[in-house]
Amino acid sequence: MKLERSTRMLSNLRNDIEWFKNNPDISYLDSGATSLKPKPVIDFINYYCNHLCTNPHNDDSSFAHQAHLVIEDTKNKIAKLLNSDPSSIAFTPGATYSLNAIVNFLKPFLKDNDEIILTNGEHTSNLLPWFDLVNELKAYCNINIKIEYVEIDIHSDNIKNFLDKINKNTKVICFANEFNLIGCQIDAIKLSNEVKKINPNIFICVDATQFIVHHKIDLKDSNIDFLSCSAHKMLGPTGIGALYINKKFIEKLKPHIVGGGMNFEVKRNYYSLIEGVTKFEAGTPNVMGIYGWNKALDYYLNSDLEKECARIYQLKKYLDQNLTTVNDVIIFNSNIEAFNTIFAYKGIFSQDLANYLGTKKIIVRSGLSCAKLANEILKTDHVVRASFHFYTNKEDLDKLISAIKNFKKEDILNGLL
User: Fold this and answer.
1) 261-273 exposure pattern, b = at least 16 Cβ within 10 A, e = fewer
2) Which of 36, 61, 119, 145 could form a disulfide with 150 if both were Cys (CB 3.0 to 4.6 A apart)?
3) What CA–CA distance (Å, rounded) separates 186 from 399?
4) For the residues 353-359, what does the mean pLDDT come to?
5) Mean pLDDT of the 127-145 span
6) Can you tell me the distance from the alpha carbon of 12 to that of 401, in angstroms, rounded to the nearest whole number?
7) Residue 154: which of 336, 369, 373, 340 has the closest Cα?
8) Is the pLDDT score of 133 beyond 60?
9) Averaged confidence pLDDT in the chain
């Protein structure tokens, strides 16, 4: 099969997604959790299953080798989006796995009294692995590691907040450069540069799961050491993600998962590793996921992301302006450029409001969307999140606006009848 670059564009994205044809009366506003999938993504997965279905570790024939070529091509596309070298990118089952891998990679580098800086806006995938690390080192190695938190300000760039936390014990800074709930962004390149000026030995880890959905990022010559992302947020399948590892660390890190495909030599009591990021990719990869992601990436590489983002930012502004006119509605992340709006209705539990919107065929998310410390930022324990993608249009938001404007408190009983 000859690999050809698709000319699919984000501007035509809605026409390429058959979900809308199958659900013409539903407004999908939960893209921050999982994006809808264009037909070319699904078709390429089906192509692999129906025409190839070979293991990419099989290089014994040109037929079997085709899957390997698509895997390489997909890494090249990810590298282009990140302006990095493909040899710095490892496939993983997703961003959660990648973040856990980072924690395990860095475990041998930590010593007593070291400090890790996180934020109170993080997804639990970037909290719990660090909690476990601290507890494990204390229990089994008598090493005391401390976690410090940057308090996120929605309307600030937060760079100074990070720099003020750094001291002689700081060893790791790990943060999302776009927060999945509150929606604000952190300039990861700028922050990493400033941190390395203070201490070049601090590890910089970025959870780019939300940011990479809407933006390219330039990792060439950057001071970012690790970066994670997931395909299913960016039009691709679930169960596949990527981990960028700065080249200067690749040979120093030990894989935390071992098995087939990543070893060079195996003896009775000894094995050696393949060089490069392949040593972090034990076992048969999610080939179907990689095939799907391959086609999803074409939308990003062939489009003007800044132009498409500007359109979505205008839609958010439109939604916020309309919701502001509704008595008892509170918007928590207004006046920022974000791919979501988080709001609440005074006196109404967010899950009840989300359930009401569901009866109006509007799909949103309630609670804190796994950002379990964000209640400190928002001063509330639950919100409704309406999150967008490049396929979101004004009609989707008009339907939400109408439902909120017509909402009566007794409507929350509808889902119980």
Assistant:
1) ebbeeeeeeeeeb
2) 119
3) 31
4) 97
5) 98
6) 25
7) 336
8) yes
9) 96
pLDDT at residue 190 is higher than 70: yes
* H or E element, residue 165: helix 159-165
- Contact in structure between 344 and 218 (CB atoms under 8 Å): no
Q: Structure tokens of 238?
A: 């679930």
Tokens of 313: 């930012």
* Banded model confidence at residue 8, pLDDT cuts 50, 70, 90: confident
Q: How is the beta sheet containing 241-245 ordered, strand by strand?
A: 89-92, 241-245, 226-230, 203-207, 170-176, 115-119, 146-150
Confidence bin at 416 (pLDDT 50/70/90): very low
Global pTM value: 0.96
Q: Are 165 and 139 in contact (CB under 8 A)?
A: no
In this structure, how many other beta carbons lie within 10 angstroms of the beta carbon of residue 3?
A: 12
172 alpha carbon, distance to own chain's centre: 20
Q: Give the DSSP letter of residue 30.
A: B
Mark residue 328 as left, alpha or beta (left: phi above 0; alpha: psi -120 to 50; beta: remaining): left
For 184, the token pair is 């604000």
Give the pair of three-digit tokens for residue 118.
Answer: 């996180």
Among candidate residues 332, 356, 346, 328, the one with its CA nearest the CA of residue 415: 356
In the structure encoding, which two tokens stand for residue 210, read together? 């939300």
Residue 60: Cβ within 10 Å count: 9
SS3 46: helix
Helices first, then strands: H and E counts in the chain: 14, 15
Strand order across the 340-345 sheet = 329-331, 340-345, 383-387, 365-367
